Fold No apical meristem-associated C-terminal domain-containing protein.
Amino acid sequence: MKKTNDIRDRAAEAELRSSNMEIMSKRIEDLPDDISRKYLELQKEIIMHDIRDQVEERRKLAAEKSKGINQSASSSSHQEPQINQSASSSSHPESRDSENESSETEENEEVAEVYEDEIDPTLDDLA
């Protein structure tokens, strides 16, 4: 059921984008009267406002997520000296290095996912 809802949501978003693209591609000069021109102008303004809001929201989410990742990285680096002090002489530095590398890789992948989803490529044509 969740997959069906996701598919329907994506279809609705695609239809909305298509409709918006059609509106944005129309030329105000081609319309017959002032009322139609004004209506198209208002529609374009609404679409651009919505796009700006979406971009701003995605940037905020990306900033919050990267801030959270940076905080978790800094908190783990603050915890590392405590671990080193309490570790016995039998601990292996190689195992700690591989753990740090894997956590850094995971963080980099999360940041990449955030920025990958940040801007819809169809929006480039609207600007």
Summary: Residues 1-68+108-127 form one domain. Residues 20 and 47 are 7 Å apart (CA to CA). The two ends are 37 Å apart (CA to CA).
